[in-house]
Design goal:
73% helix, 505 residues, mainly alpha
């Protein structure tokens, strides 16, 4: 939120620049359907709400449903809930106390968010009053509150944590789809009141605050939590309100070897990442033509030039878009490494290695599958970006955009190699290493974009080493160096993995 406000006042300094931004995006149906309404883009508050609300709304909802399903059904699956209930705590009482603890966590999240929002708003160029800033912070955490409660309910309805999280995610997806229909400008605005995400939109923080829209949010959260507590007291430990359907015949596909098993284990996650990357790429392609009009004559051009994307056309904007897609592909790479580490930390790898499966074949299969996934992700990013841009008659070249998609793969392969190295040498630090590299690279790129960083530090970002294609031609030499670094790191990690003991959590 703070970075969005700062970037707005630094990029759109004149009223004319802000009015051009309003003209380009204020009534653009594609961006409104994807991001929500865009009122008052000529103000800091209006732009900030438009820029971050939908993203943080989705992130908060995902965090909420994953957290509550892990704490409730996940603890039950692991057998730790049984230990808790062996004392004087009842099933209903334990669930209620867990929800109170989660509510305290959301309260702490709101306090930190409100503090940052208020401090940022007090800066003279931004000038957001304390009350509206605190209300905006409340709107940002509202989705987390609702989907914590949704996750608590689905944890009682289905028998496994995975099913509980998937069921809650379906509710989130339906909510988002209904909100998109409401914002698409086809005369169905009333359906916004049917969607939990639509209720958050109705709060309209920083533009036209409507505190009464908090009522359905509070009522929905309370109802979900109350039903979850009641169901927890009405079922046996390990059971569920909805009966589980068992298959008559086991599924043994993709169980012929460690690599096939890897494909089977990661396919759901890979599909999820693929859909996220495809939707994001399509979105960036759809708004490329509208964004083109906001670059010319504004300081956005300066920022894009610092990020290696010169020019004022759609290609310059897509150069920035592919930087964001590179971040998504990088996180997909990190997820593949941490999934491999989870197999070891959870003790499941032991059951493979006591059979005629070598460590090299297991880790090599993991890395091979991950590399194929990353190349496929880059291809999907390029193809769907072109589809979105072509649908708006942007005029970008098909080959250039697809190649730009492949250009995002080398940084991800480098992250994959660094993760494999850490897995072999310091296994318990695997997550810290891969997400640390990604976080540092992204932070440096953001700060460097506004010119507030030394160029030597700027060069430490993996994303800065990636050419901003299609605004410029890909630098395959630099890309090859990143791939080589990742490959060498992976080989060293594999050697170390073969020589060390397996390490638990």
């Amino acid at each position: 939120m703070a970075s969005s406000a700062f970037s707005y006042v630094s990029l759109y300094k004149s009223q004319a620049q802000r009015e051009r931004l309003e003209a380009a995006f204020g009534s653009n149906k594609a961006t409104i359907a994807l991001f929500g309404p865009a009122p008052q883009l000529q103000t800091v508050g209006g732009f900030t709400v438009f820029k971050v609300s939908m993203t943080l709304m989705i992130l908060g909802a995902v965090w909420g449903l994953l957290t509550s399903t892990r704490l409730l059904r996940g603890e039950e699956d692991a057998g730790r809930w049984e230990l808790l209930l062996s004392g004087h705590t009842t099933r209903r009482g334990a669930t209620a106390q867990a929800l109170v603890g989660l509510a305290g966590g959301v309260g702490a999240l709101w306090v930190v968010t409100a503090l940052i929002t208020v401090v940022t708003g007090r800066i003279s160029k931004i000038d957001i009053a304390v009350g509206p800033a605190m209300f905006f912070a409340l709107a940002l955490v509202a989705s987390a509150v609702m989907f914590l409660a949704v996750g608590a309910l689905t944890s009682q309805l289905v028998p496994t944590r995975r099913q509980a999280a998937a069921s809650a995610a379906v509710i989130l997806g339906v909510s988002y789809a209904i909100r998109m229909v409401a914002d698409a400008g086809i005369g169905l605005q009333w359906t916004r009141w049917v969607s939990p995400l639509g209720w958050i939109e109705q709060l309209q923080p920083l533009t036209a605050p409507r505190p009464l829209a908090l009522l359905p949010i509070a009522a929905f959260s309370a109802a979900m939590a109350t039903v979850a507590v009641r169901l927890a007291g009405n079922r046996d430990l390990g059971a569920s309100a909805l009966s589980d359907r068992s298959r008559a015949q086991p599924s043994v596909r993709l169980l012929s070897g460690p690599t096939d098993l890897t494909v089977r284990l990661v396919r759901a996650t890979v599909i999820g990442w693929g859909v996220a990357i495809a939707v994001s790429a399509l979105l960036y392609g759809l708004v490329a033509k509208a964004a083109e009009g906001t670059i010319s004559g504004s300081s956005v051009h300066t920022v894009l030039s610092r990020l290696g994307a010169p020019g004022t056309g759609a290609e310059a904007y897509l150069g920035l878009a592919f930087l964001i897609l590179a971040v998504l592909v990088g996180f997909a790479a990190a997820g593949q490494v941490t999934a491999a580490r989870a197999e070891e930390a959870g003790g499941r790898l032991d059951h493979l290695l006591v059979r005629p499966v070598s460590r090299s074949s297991w880790l090599g299969g993991r890395l091979l599958v991950a590399a194929v996934v990353l190349v496929a992700s880059g291809s999907v990013a390029g193809l769907f970006t072109w589809l979105g841009a072509a649908s708006q008659h942007t005029g970008v070249n098909f080959t250039a955009v697809v190649v730009a998609g492949l250009n995002v793969v080398p940084p991800a392969l480098c992250v994959l190699g660094i993760g494999a190295f850490t897995l072999g040498v310091w296994p318990r630090s695997t997550s810290i290493a891969v997400y640390g590299v990604l976080g540092w690279s992204l932070l440096v790129e953001i700060i460097g974009g506004i010119g507030a960083i030394n160029h030597w530090v700027f060069d430490t970002s993996l994303f800065h080493q990636m050419a901003a294609a299609p605004a410029v031609a890909p630098n395959w030499t630099t890309g090859g160096v990143m791939v080589a670094i990742g490959a060498v790191a992976a080989v060293i990690g594999a050697i170390a993995f073969n020589r060390r003991d397996l390490a638990g959590e």
